[in-house]
Design brief:
245 residues; mainly beta; five-stranded mixed β-sheet; 12 strands
């Protein structure tokens, strides 16, 4: 897993010596389904931006930014007919690099994982330039015109509206759970590199995963009310990484 994370950050290229019917992309490639079709985005060189001219990110006061995650707040308000959310299954501490974790999307539910975002001026958050999820799956690619496809997004509530609204950098659609979603608490980097901005303040957030119809491509009724979710379970893995300045 360590080599995989290093490969993700350095954008190492996977060898093309595979079978003729297998499509191989560079490590870090994001496969997205948009109105224009299935978009393949290579590892973003803009992620490597090193300049940070932000002034409001500097800890210049005596405020206590001690980090106190409180799982008792997690999953509050969840509609368990729509979401699978367990306070004990969380991403605390948030500023961390981890090995792969195995997850399942079952029973047509959205799988939501809570975490407490530390204040930007917390000693660990202040040193983190950006982080990412590296997602992999053995599932086959799905057809966005006729099937539900993989979706990942960040929100303030379990199964809530994506941060920044639908279509923002805090939401990704994929024909298969194979790719990355990046986040940061650096507002300048978020604007420069098209990365999900999680904010500066300490708060509870959720990482959400589901399979659903993608309205711009789906041939049939597709809405927030009717997501055309299949009854098939979906297994995927997530490894988290953090890059410092």
């Amino acid at each position: 897993m360590k080599s995989s994370l290093i490969a993700a950050v350095m954008a190492a290229i996977i060898s093309s010596s595979t079978s003729a019917d297998t499509v191989v992309y560079p490590v870090g490639t994001v496969i997205e389904v948009t109105e224009q079709g299935v978009m393949v985005t290579p590892p973003s060189s803009s992620i490597a931006v090193t300049s940070d001219t932000s002034t409001d990110d500097t800890a210049t006061d005596d405020t206590d930014y001690t980090y106190y995650p409180d799982p008792s707040e997690y999953c509050y308000g969840s509609d368990y007919t729509l979401v699978d959310c367990d306070p004990s299954v969380n991403y605390d501490p948030w500023i961390a690099s981890t090995g792969e974790k195995h997850y399942w999307i079952r029973n047509r539910l959205t799988f939501a994982i809570p975490f407490t975002l530390p204040h930007r001026n917390h000693e660990h958050a202040f040193k983190a330039k950006y982080g990412y999820f590296q997602m992999t799956a053995s599932e086959r690619k799905r057809d966005p015109e006729t099937e539900d496809i993989f979706r990942v997004w960040f929100s303030e509530e379990p199964n809530g509206v994506p941060l920044g609204g639908k279509g923002s950098n805090c939401e990704k659609w994929m024909v298969k759970a194979r790719g990355y979603i990046y986040w940061t608490q650096d507002a300048d980097l978020a604007a420069e590199a098209n990365v999900c901005f999680l904010g500066h303040s300490e708060k509870v957030l959720y990482a959400n995963f589901e399979t659903a119809c993608y309205a711009p491509r789906y041939k049939g009724e597709c809405s927030d009310i009717n997501k055309q979710k299949s009854y098939n379970s979906y297994q995927f893995d997530v490894a988290r990484g953090v890059k410092g300045y």
